Amino acid sequence: MRRAPGPKRSAFPAALAAIGLAALTVGALAGCVPAPAPAPTAKPTSSATATPTLDLQGTAQQNLAYFDYVNNKFIDEGGDLSGRPFIDNLVKAGFPKSDLEVTPDRTTVNLAADNISFSVRLGKTCLIGQYGNTGYASTAQKLLSTGRCLVGTTRTIDW
User: Fold this and answer.
1) How far apart are CA 86 and CA 157, in angstroms?
2) 92 CB-contact burial (10 Å; exposed 0-12 / middle 13-18 / buried 19+)
3) What is the largest CA-CA distance in the chain?
4) Would you say residue 124 lies in a domain?
5) CB atoms within 10 A of CB 150
6) Number of C-alpha atoms within 13 angstroms, CB side, residue 110?
7) Residue 3, in any domain of the structure
8) Residue pLDDT, tens place only, 80-138
9) Radius of gyration over alpha carbons of the chain, in Å?
10) Between the CA of residue 105 and those of 39, 52, 66, 84, what are the distances in Å?
11) Which residues, 6+ apart, have CB-to-CB distance to 42 below 8 Å?
12) pTM for the whole thing?
């Protein structure tokens, strides 16, 4: 049997399909090519860390690193860890004595307090430190509405 002649088929749709398939294959394979590795950047290596400095015109937050540096150094050197030595060390480090506060370092039955708190007023902000049986901690806070940094009873700094 012979087929009856029909309309002539064009080769164009088949060629278009082949081109589309080739483009799709190339696009899919392009996603498989690994991206070039980023070039390493040089990092400055310095074994020396800059020592923080005091800025009495700055805020507590701006001076927190210096406050921590001074107090941690004092603790690490094994100084007397009661209230007066902390205050004396802060004065030696440049903080004005008139802007300092400290809680009592003795209990009502004359035992060493578990923790003492001390602070520095800087404008309308405060550096607050605490040292005792849980170690050292510090924070920068706003000045209280009382004009003080510490809540509760503080020791008179009259030496």
Assistant:
1) 12
2) exposed
3) 125
4) yes
5) 18
6) 0
7) no
8) 878 999 999 999 999 999 999 999 999 999 999 999 999 999 999 999 999 999 899 99
9) 36
10) 57, 28, 24, 9
11) none
12) 0.69
The two tokens of residue 158 are 């009259």
Compute the average pLDDT of residues 47-65: 92
Task: Please tell me the total count of domains within the chain.
Answer: 1
Tell me whether strands 135-142 and 125-132 are parallel, antiparallel or unpaired.
Answer: antiparallel
Q: Which amino acid is at 103?
A: T
Residues in the chain: 159
Tell me the residue range of the domain where 118 lies.
60-142
Report yes or no on 125 lying in a domain: yes
Distance of CA 24 to the CA centre of its chain: 50
Question: Contacts for 137-144 with beta carbons within 8 Å, 24 or more apart?
Answer: 138/64, 138/67, 138/68, 138/71, 139/64, 140/59, 140/60, 140/61, 140/63, 140/64, 141/60
